[in-house]
Amino acid sequence: ENRALGVVRNLGGRVEAVQIAIEKATDKPLVYYELDATDPAKPYTSGPGTFVDTLITMAGGENLGASLNGEWAQISQEELLSKDPAVILLGDAAYGVTADSLKERAGWGELSALKNDKVFAFDDNLVSRPSMRLVDGLEQMAKLIHPELFK
Question: What span, in angstroms and rounded, lies between the C-alpha atoms of 114 and 110?
Fold first, then answer.
């Protein structure tokens, strides 16, 4: 029991440290989290109410998928391109998706995230199911979305 309480205190302290750092953020960049782009014209992303949605918000970003219907939603390529995310997190990087492969998709090379080198491989195992790893995912997301706060 004492060991469990220690783990909970440690995790809570790490979340609080991220929250304190994020309070200093001056912007909330639009973040696209890619889950699966087997069909690049309609890739899957994280919609409202998911762990990923919550963590993007806690990490100081705005989830591009938050306005979609359904927790794991498809977004049209046209809508995604018009929203122009500032940061792209590739939850499907383990399957070979890279910033270079995004540039090969029609129109994607014009996205702000690609132009500004704000496309990052992201370990989806940290955020896809409830566990203590969610805190690791939060920390990693916050550092990618707001690197200026974690130097």
Answer: 7
Cβ neighbours of residue 34 closer than 8 Å, sequence gap 6 or more: 43, 44, 45, 88, 89, 90, 91, 92, 97
Among 137, 108, 94, which Cα is nearest to 43's?
A: 108
pTM of the model as a whole: 0.95
State both tokens at 141. Answer: 């997301």
pLDDT tens-digit series, residues 44-67: 999 999 999 999 999 999 999 999
CA atoms within 13 A on the CB side of 22: 24
Which residues face 73 on adjacent strands? 45
Collect all residues with Cβ–Cβ distance below 8 Å to 118 and sequence separation of at least 6.
29, 86, 87, 88, 112
